[in-house]
Amino acid sequence: MKLEQEELWHHCKAFMPTFWMLGCAYYTYEDMEPGSRLIMFTQTLVMDLDNIRHFYEGAVPEHNVATMANVMRESMLRQLHVVGRMRELKVTEVEIAALTTLLLWDADAARNHPNIQKIGACERKKIFDELGSYYRFVLNESDYAARLGGLMCLYSSFQ
Prior knowledge:
Number of strands: 2
Oligomer: single chain
Keywords: Receptor, Transcription, Transcription regulation
InterPro entries: NHR-like_dom_sf, Nucl_hrmn_rcpt_lig-bd
Distance between the termini: 25 Å
Protein name: NR LBD domain-containing protein
Order of helices and strands: HEEHHHHH
Number of domains: 1
Radius of gyration: 18 Å
Domain NR LBD: 1-159
CATH superfamily: Retinoid X Receptor
Structural class: mainly alpha
Number of helices: 6
Mean pLDDT: 88
Strand content: under 5%
Low-confidence stretches: none
């Protein structure tokens, strides 16, 4: 099945913010020490939770700097909490790839697009089948329900 241009555009717009959040969390998980108050905002931009104000100084009117910094701080604290959960799970690259693809084919993001829903349902089945094989044969975990549940909790954080 081939998606129309409008469907592709809808799908891309729905996925990009989620992909950015997952990327930030994964870069932080991989590149920052546990307990760090630094967040990889992009592959080349690190945000310091204790010095957010400097990110906005000179870019927004001075009376808005504190407000903007507080909004960003709340977002970063949530992101650090998610990174902590990734560390507890010791999420693997394969699980991150699966999580990324599951988020790409999120059923709710496509609720008004039957073609996207149909493709997404097939893709999600493939992902879960592959994850089951990965857990059983690569990680040698026959009882992987708790691990998969942890991954799905991360999924809900990025939705």
